[in-house]
Write a structure and sequence with these properties.
about 120 residues, alpha+beta, 4-stranded mixed beta sheet, two-stranded antiparallel sheet, 4 helices
């Protein structure tokens, strides 16, 4: 399974989660050994090789010009959220394995989130 980490360079709560939760030995071990961990920075200003035109749900067209635009659009359009940090465990087809996890400095709750995703992945 893949663990998506929607983060931001300027995200204070993201740094808090990294320091208080993701560094916990049990969580770090689970992520390192059981997930492909991918961090997507929604405020990354690096330009895309070519702009991407997308349709919003309301029918409006938008042009994504930066990697941050692309990751922010992915988070909002696929997972219905636009806040960071935001964590989603997904299967091989990109489908969520459990409810997403957002900012909460709670090691036990985060470990439960990871384990639920792993259990659902293994039972597919």
């Amino acid at each position: 399974p893949v663990l998506l980490d929607f983060s931001g360079y300027a995200c204070v709560n993201c740094r808090k989660m990294e320091a208080a939760v993701l560094t916990n030995p049990d969580i770090k071990n689970t992520i390192d050994n059981d997930f492909v961990f991918v961090t997507l920075m929604v405020d990354d200003k690096a330009p895309l090789p070519e702009p991407i035109r997308v349709k919003e749900r309301n029918g409006d067209e938008t042009t994504l010009r930066t990697y941050g635009d692309k990751w922010s659009y992915l988070q909002a359009s696929k997972f219905g959220a636009n806040a960071q940090p935001f964590y989603v465990a997904i299967d091989n087809d990109g489908n969520p394995l459990a409810a997403a996890f957002s900012f909460k400095e709670d090691v036990s709750a985060y470990l439960d989130f990871l384990n639920k995703g792993l259990d659902n992945y293994r039972n597919k």
